[in-house]
């Protein structure tokens, strides 16, 4: 009896093994799937890839998106480079804000062109600032200290009068009205940055401030564009200056033009600056936290004479003259109107204003990420319409939607 039971167990075990072997062999015969985009062993069984739709012949392959398969520009563009540099006025405490700006400029433009970058400070730059910025910039970096005489009160300024003005502006809550360092900065940007020894090596500059943003790819050399088209000054934003910061700037300018009429060129941009043939200033100016310009023009006798005249008038300290209206008035009177350029294609942000290029196709082609509804160009406080009218330029298609 025991032997019979043992044989039955062997038979049941053998049956179980046979059943398991059957299922294993059956599972191994499941056909392999042909995934899209890969050819199977039998070409006739291949599943057509999205790039080669079934039934289409020829070498032309249609794009799979409405952008037409646009390619990224080369990491380093071909061609000669201009004698040009970026320039930034910053302090060590600005490091992480200027790092953001550098990253924007490098990603959108300079990784293709590798231009140098000059950093200027009224103090010594520390090692951390140098290490971080050098690592971010694709060109060479240079670090300069501003001479004390360029960042201090000139001996002809009445310190008591200047202090009283600052106190009055503080009470009126005028932006930077009580700041001494801001006044030194405006004076320095107006009359000295282009004369720093590090800047004397260059012919062209692009000014970059901390915390700016570039919204679109720039696939051409802006410096070469300026040179080839005989431009000497450029901008992306223009607006009205705070009236209380420059009450006598135009009077000082008219005194200068009477003394130095030889510096005022024909076919200039006076109508951008004045609505009554130069009698009064309408306060329009180019926002100078962005500018690409010619350093030889700033170092010219005409501009130096203008700056020296303004400096001795005292308005940098007795009022709060900004470098933006100073540069703008100088460019408007001393340059021909066709020597000033508006870069519609350089999308730019500096708190609180945005320039987002007008024109949807341009924004798509250049991978812009700005919101056109935030574009300041056609805002009532913008002066861009005046610039277009002065130069008989047609406003870009679609500008009405951004007013």
Descriptors for this entry?
about 400 residues, alpha/beta, Spore Coat Polysaccharide Biosynthesis Protein SpsA, Chain A, 5-stranded mixed β-sheet, 3-stranded antiparallel β-sheet, 14 helices, about 10% strand
Per CATH, the architecture is: Alpha-Beta Complex
Shape: globular
List segments where confidence is low: pLDDT < 50 over at least 5 consecutive residues.
Answer: 23-59
Which structural class fits the helix and strand makeup? alpha/beta
CATH class, named: Alpha Beta
Mean pLDDT: 88
According to DSSP, the number of beta strands is 12
For the record, what is the CATH homologous superfamily label?
Answer: Spore Coat Polysaccharide Biosynthesis Protein SpsA, Chain A
Q: SSE string, helix = H, strand = E?
A: HEHEHEHHEEHEEHHEEHHHHEEEHH
Total of helices: 14
Terminal Cα separation, in Å? 104 Å
CATH topology: Spore Coat Polysaccharide Biosynthesis Protein SpsA, Chain A
Number of domains: 1
Strand content: 5-15%
The whole-angstrom Rg is 33 Å
Share of residues in helices: 25-40%
What's the main sheet like? 5 strands, mixed
- Spatially, the strands of the biggest sheet line up as 3-2-1-4-9
């Amino acid at each position: 009896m025991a032997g019979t039971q043992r044989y039955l167990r062997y038979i049941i075990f053998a049956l179980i093994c046979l059943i398991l072997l059957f299922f294993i062999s059956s599972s191994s015969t499941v056909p392999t799937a042909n995934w899209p985009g890969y050819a199977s062993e039998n070409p006739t069984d291949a599943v057509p890839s999205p790039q080669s739709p079934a039934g289409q012949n020829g070498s032309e392959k249609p794009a799979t998106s409405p952008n037409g398969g646009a390619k990224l520009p080369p990491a380093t563009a071909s061609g000669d480079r201009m004698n040009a540099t970026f320039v930034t006025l910053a302090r060590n405490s600005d490091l992480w804000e200027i790092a953001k700006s550098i990253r924007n400029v490098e990603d959108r433009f300079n990784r293709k062109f590798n231009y140098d970058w000059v950093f200027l400070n009224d103090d010594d730059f520390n090692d951390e600032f140098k290490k971080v910025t050098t690592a971010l910039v694709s060109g060479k970096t240079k670090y300069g200290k501003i001479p004390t005489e360029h960042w201090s009160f000139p001996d002809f300024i009445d310190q008591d009068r200047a202090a009283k003005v600052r106190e009055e502006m503080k009470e009126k809550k005028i932006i930077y009205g009580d700041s001494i360092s801001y006044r030194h900065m405006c004076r320095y940007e107006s009359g000295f940055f282009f004369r720093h020894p590090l800047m004397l090596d260059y012919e062209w500059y692009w000014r970059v401030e901390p915390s700016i943003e570039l919204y679109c790819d720039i696939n051409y050399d802006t410096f070469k564009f300026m040179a080839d088209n005989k431009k000497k000054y450029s901008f992306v934003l223009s607006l009205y200056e705070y009236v209380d910061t420059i009450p006598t700037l135009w009077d000082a300018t008219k005194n200068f033009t009477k003394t130095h009429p030889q510096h005022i060129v024909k076919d200039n941009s006076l109508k951008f600056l004045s609505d009554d043939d130069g009698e009064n200033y309408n306060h329009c100016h180019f926002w100078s936290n962005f500018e690409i310009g010619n350093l030889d023009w700033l170092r010219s006798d005409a501009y130096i004479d203008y700056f020296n005249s303004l400096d001795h008038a005292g308005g940098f300290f007795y009022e709060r003259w900004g470098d933006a209206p100073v540069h703008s008035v100088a460019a408007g009177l001393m340059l021909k109107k066709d020597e000033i350029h508006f870069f519609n294609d350089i999308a730019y942000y500096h708190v609180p204003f945005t320039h987002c290029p007008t024109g949807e196709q341009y924004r798509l082609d250049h991978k812009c990420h700005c919101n056109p509804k935030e574009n300041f160009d056609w805002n009532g406080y913008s002066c861009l319409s005046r610039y277009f009218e002065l130069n008989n330029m047609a406003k870009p298609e679609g500008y009405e939607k951004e007013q």
